[in-house]
Amino acid sequence: MERVGIVGCGQMGAGIAEVCARAGLDVVAVESGAEAVEAGRRRLEGSLGRAERKGRIPDAAEVLRRIRVTDSLDELADRTLVIEAIVENEQVKADLFARLDKIVTDPDAILASNTSSIPIMKLGTVTGRAGQVLGIHFFNPVPVLPLVELVPSLLTRPEVVDRARGFAQEVLGKHAILCKDRAGFVVNSLLIPFILAAVRMLESGFASRDDIDEGLVRGAAHPQGPLALADLIGLDTTKAVAESLYEEFKEPLYAPPPLLARMVDAGLLGRKSGRGFYTYS
Ligand code: NAI
After folding, report:
1. Rounded alpha-carbon distances, angstroms, from residue 252 to 88, 192, 194, 205, 257
2. Which residues pair with 5 in a beta bridge?
């Protein structure tokens, strides 16, 4: 898997492109439109520049040279692994997988999704190669967090899971865990209801933002509180994942609270938009 394609060069896609390039792989990252290509490039330069200044990599420019950011999906034709990291929307992702199936020429190539909650089966079955489709779910920030969840659908071939595990562990140096194809996988099934409970607590006036977050940081040794974490994930993504979990299990604890929905309507998406539960400069 030396030729990797990433679709979406936002928070997650850029992080995945970065770790692949840092592992010496040739990367093509696809964004939608010239402006988004430029934003993706800036995101990569910023992150790799910081890694160089902190002494984590010797030469950011050398890593950047291995990543081509483009707005043409056709440039993924020769890839042996494509990882999708676009918006968390089932129809949009399914349309993309149907197109990737036609574009990527190697029949052994793996088509993976970084989705947090959409059933892999829904993405596999729109292609003619459901056996080659699986979830490879990274964590934010990708260059820092070591976990990857591998999510085969009922149709994914075991050999494909083995190759994905080898890629995650041996090539990228991540730790892989295996999950069934159920919305939320392991980590978000536990994390999202926790974050939603914090939003409900704030919404009801039970406790203030700072007291909720401080409570978990100082009382439970969490590195950051649940509201700060929601801002980091992105409130749009948090809401979308909650909706998928609710759709799958119909459990009230997964239903996005009105405050979260209103904040997303208002464009208060967290760190990526400059304001969520906190304000960022
Ligand atoms: P984001 O909003 O930062 O980035 C999404 C990017 O995809 C944007 O730059 C957008 O321009 C691009 N895009 C949208 N449609 C496209 C298309 N058709 N072709 C090419 N590019 C397209 O979102 P983020 O946070 O990077 O999330 C991406 C995926 O990763 C989602 O499925 C999300 O659930 C998943 N994820 C997110 C995590 C997080 O903490 N934010 C953690 C793990 C997974």
Report:
1. 21, 12, 13, 20, 10
2. 28, 82
CB-based contact 252:227 (threshold 8 Å): no
Beta strands of 119-271 (E only): which ranges? 133-138, 147-152, 175-178
Spell out where 153-228 has E strands: 175-178
Q: Are 9 and 36 in contact (CB under 8 A)?
A: yes
Assign 1 a pLDDT band (cuts: 50, 70, 90): low
Say yes or no: domain 3-178 is CATH 3.40.50.720: yes
Q: What is the pLDDT of residue 2?
A: 85
Closest ligand 1 atom to 117 CA: 34
**Which is the catalytic residue, given 18, 31, 84, 149?**
149
Distance 136 CA to ligand 1 centre (A): 14
What average pLDDT is seen over the chain? 97
pLDDT tens-place string over residues 119-141:
999 999 999 999 999 999 999 99
> Which residues form the pocket of ligand 1, taking CB atoms under 6 Å from any ligand atom?
7-13, 30-32, 36, 85-88, 96, 114-116, 137-140, 233-234, 237, 272
Mean pLDDT of 32-55: 97
Which two three-digit tokens encode residue 160?
């494909």
Q: Is 149 a catalytic residue?
A: yes
What topology does CATH give the domain 192-272? Answer: N-(1-d-carboxylethyl)-l-norvaline Dehydrogenase; domain 2 (1.10.1040)
